[in-house]
DNA sequence: TAAAATAAGACCGAATCAATCCGATTTAAA
DNA sequence: TTTAAATCGGATTGATTCGGTCTTATTTTA
């Protein structure tokens, strides 16, 4: 039930990216793009780690990258349209509490016929829904007033 | 985002326990209690693993145990009142996606003052709510018709 | 054309986790 | 009183994954 450190760091890195390139993407590539080194400096994370993170985030379509001198990173879409679920899935893959769903095998309980298995997709979807409800913009606000969610 | 194997097995073990001791607790200790060995046989899990699991489940108050010959296990309360959240918390501890909440330290991003941290409790509570909505009785049904939630 | 700056991928050490085993304690039955 | 059965607790071993570092390839500017 714990998030992997990489996913945890990815959330922090995305918040930092959203601050440095507030609404990139719309105004072309002429903007001042933030690079991985600047993100590492702001977040305090080791630079190679941030580089590996942005690689996955770019591959997942959450960030856009420009190579070469003067290159850097930019948010692929508006920060309001990026949720926690997007970031977690970009780093950890599909949201699934158990490996039952992915592969065909993994017979943890062959004797039962595993009556539990058919119910996992429902739980996974509920979790995904909960994470989808948290946009990146909410994580950017430094205030600590807890916004009551039911 | 993956459940630990122990928590995964605990869910299967609890389902098996709920089948062998349908509604124990009310009718005293005179019932036929299932022991850890029988649960291991039915679930296909290794016996030592099941023993360690039931230890934690008893400590968490989900199962009651009777030591000595003729002893065994019984559900502490009705299967309908035991949720996925209870089982996960019994094995893994409090539901928290990041270690930020528990301890005071763990400064993953000292530069930012970690604007993300105050928002984690909200996410954790949402996840806990999703898991609390799945009672043990639902997991016992062997049918694979997906009951639409949402 | 050359140099510099960037992203992207491969490699390796380390830590956590899962699984197993062994002993101690307790209770019921013979 | 003795024996057997069953839980409880800790300690050990092995493996998988995670985190970090390094090297390579590509692109842009001067």
TrEMBL record, chains A, B:
Classification via InterPro entries: Tscrpt_reg_Rrf2, WH-like_DNA-bd_sf, WH_DNA-bd_sf
GO MF assignments: DNA-binding transcription factor activity
Domain of life assignment: Bacteria
One protein family per Pfam: Rrf2
Gene Ontology CC annotation, any one: cytosol
Protein name in UniProt: Rrf2 family protein
Species this chain originates from: Novosphingobium sediminicola
């Amino acid at each position: 039930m714990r998030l992997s450190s990489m996913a945890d760091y990815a959330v922090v890195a995305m918040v930092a990216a959203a601050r440095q390139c507030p609404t990139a993407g719309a105004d072309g590539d002429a903007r001042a793009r933030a690079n991985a080194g600047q993100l590492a400096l702001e977040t305090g994370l080791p630079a190679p780690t941030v580089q590996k993170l942005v690689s996955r985030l770019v591959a997942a379509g959450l960030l856009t990258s420009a190579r070469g001198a003067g290159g850097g990173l930019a948010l692929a879409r508006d920060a309001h349209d990026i949720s926690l679920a997007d970031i977690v899935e970009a780093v950890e893959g599909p949201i699934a509490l158990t490996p039952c769903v992915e592969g065909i095998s993994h017979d943890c309980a062959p004797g039962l016929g595993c009556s539990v298995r058919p119910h996992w997709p429902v739980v996974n979807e509920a979790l995904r829904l909960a994470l989808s409800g948290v946009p990146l913009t909410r994580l950017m606000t430094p205030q600590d007033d807890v916004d009551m969610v039911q």
